[in-house]
Amino acid sequence: MAFTNIPALQPHICVKGGLDAIAFYEKAFGAKNTFHQMADDGKRVMHANLAIYGGEVMLHDEFPEFGMSVSAPPTIGGTCFAINVNLPEPKAVDAAFAKAVAAGASPLMEPSDTFWGARYARITDPFGHIWAFNAALEQA
Fold this sequence. Notes:
Layout: E1 12-15, H1 18-29, E2 32-38, E3 45-52, E4 55-61, H2 73-76, E5 82-86, H3 90-103, E6 106-113, E7 118-124, E8 130-136
Parallel strand pairs: 1-4, 5-8
Antiparallel strand pairs: 2-3, 3-4, 6-7, 7-8
């Protein structure tokens, strides 16, 4: 298999319920599932690649039987990072936030204009990951 066009940075997230997570990201973010491999149990996602907002996110279910130290947010009681999505214009922040909440995300910060000159909002997806939407405000 040839690996081409690999982004410099790729978030690789762990979830409980990989197939449900893929379906949520497709609905909430318009993600495209470009690849996924199921585990031998036929229930858990061993690895998936999702094209989201012009980037790529990899994900997998928990596999404690393999001694993996990566766990899903509910297992560890939260997440330690947010995935930031830079959008082309301020109104896209409002649209992305509304679409994610309608798909089942929990709002953390309603869209607002910030002191750093951006329109910004945050949600938590149903799998415990935090996503932030950001777009530069128009310069006067």
